[in-house]
Design brief:
403 residues; alpha/beta; single chain; Spore Coat Polysaccharide Biosynthesis Protein SpsA, Chain A
């Protein structure tokens, strides 16, 4: 009996480094197979790109992020559509101050105010759908208001759309990397959120490129040709979908298209006031991941459950098993798993984001150990808070606002 118990305890300890290294190997294969975009130094190369940014006040870095978009994209010809709510006077004041600070780029910004979103409608998609009619370019870029998209990343997104047609649409998306290192501005919650994204983005988003198996996109920054977007009827059919990124990805795949996940980063910075805000954000993301899993056929569900779900649980399970039966050989295997997790993921991030990649051992391991709790939270609590809205979620296309 003791032998069987020892084998059972050893299983997660051994699986952790093995599965971690297998996932990292797949990410490196995807990186090596990814074509590099052609160099482009044309100062007006983004002419014809409509960048849609739904905006809501509340983030203290909002003005900085919008200014970065104007300098990186608007200065190179992109038309920025800043979509604010009609009752959000703070956002209106911020966008005007950003435009006033760079008067030579005023013509590259179109500010529009939108009425309150009806119940049962995705607030982000509501504004995107209303603004689409005002877009005259041949490419649509959707960019979160806290995102900073380098010109080189947009070059890669546009290059990935080459050859896209309405009957085979392509949606290209950037890799999220958080600028969560300014400890004077951000608290522990923001550092944990940044570390989760930076440790997980490359190893999560890149491997599905192999064989064209990507099931969804990163909704923080993605692009489509306008004719391809019109071929799937734009945003209107998906207004009642809570997760806009999953809805758009499914529409492209259902039309026979593909998702081109790029390695180039979209830089993020989120100021979270406390750990409760971090918990709410992680709960929303894990619930969205649950909706993604439920939307897939069983073979893909199994692949995601093993590749993503099991690997998320293994660090905590392996450490628990080690605590129940500690030994020097088990300690060595645990050390190998932790080293692969820390330094392997950092190497992947460095390959995508450059020298800005940092390693924070304590924060990384804490995030890994907290992840099973966030997954359990999403399994048993389907209520989320999104900006000022509270929802009870039944499915991606079925949710209700609650007081």
């Amino acid at each position: 009996m003791k032998m069987w118990l020892d084998c059972l305890l050893w299983l997660p300890i051994v699986l952790w480094p093995l599965l971690e290294m297998a996932r990292q190997f797949a990410a490196w294969r995807a990186l090596r197979a990814m074509p590099s975009p052609p160099a482009n130094d044309d100062d007006a190369r983004f002419t014809g790109v409509d960048a849609l940014q739904p905006i809501r006040s509340g983030d203290p870095t909002l003005a900085e992020a919008l200014g970065a978009s104007l300098r990186a994209l608007g200065a190179r010809g992109a038309m920025l559509h800043w979509l604010i709510d009609s009752d959000d006077t703070a956002a209106a004041r911020i966008v005007r101050s950003v435009v006033d600070a760079q008067p030579t780029l005023r013509a590259q910004v179109a500010i529009s105010a939108h009425p309150p979103c009806p119940q049962g409608i995705n607030p982000k998609l509501f504004k995107l759908d209303r603004a689409l009619a005002q877009c005259t370019g041949d490419t649509v870029l959707v960019l979160d208001d806290d995102a900073r998209l380098p010109a080189a990343t947009l070059d890669a997104l546009l290059a990935a759309l080459t050859g896209s047609r309405g009957d085979a649409p392509v949606i290209s998306t950037a890799l999220p990397i958080y600028l969560g290192t300014d400890r004077s501005l951000q608290g522990l919650g923001a550092r944990l959120l940044a570390r989760f994204v930076n440790d997980s983005a490359a190893i999560t988003y890149l491997p599905p490129r192999l064989g064209g198996r990507a099931p969804t996109i990163n909704g923080m920054a993605w692009a489509m040709r306008r004719d391809a977007l019109d071929a799937i009827d734009g945003f209107a059919p998906r207004l009642r979908h809570l997760t806009d990124d999953l809805a758009m990805a499914q529409a492209v795949l259902a039309a026979g298209g593909r998702i081109d996940q790029r390695r180039e980063p979209v830089w993020m910075r989120t100021a979270l006031p406390d750990l409760r805000a971090y918990t709410r954000q992680m709960h929303r993301w894990m619930l969205f991941a649950r909706l993604l899993l439920r939307s897939q056929p069983w073979p893909i569900r199994l692949r995601i459950a093993v590749g993503q779900g099991l690997s998320a649980l293994l660090p905590a399970i392996a450490l628990t098993a080690f605590a129940m039966a500690p030994s020097w050989p088990a300690a060595v295997v645990i050390a190998i798993g932790a080293t692969a997790h820390l330094y392997g993921r950092r190497a992947l991030q460095r390959a995508c984001a450059g020298s800005s990649a940092r390693i924070e051992p304590a924060t990384s391991l804490l995030v890994a150990l907290l992840l099973p709790l966030h997954i359990l939270h999403a399994l048993f609590d389907t209520r989320i808070r999104w900006r000022e809205h509270h929802y009870r979620v039944f499915a991606n296309d079925r949710f209700e606002e609650i007081p």
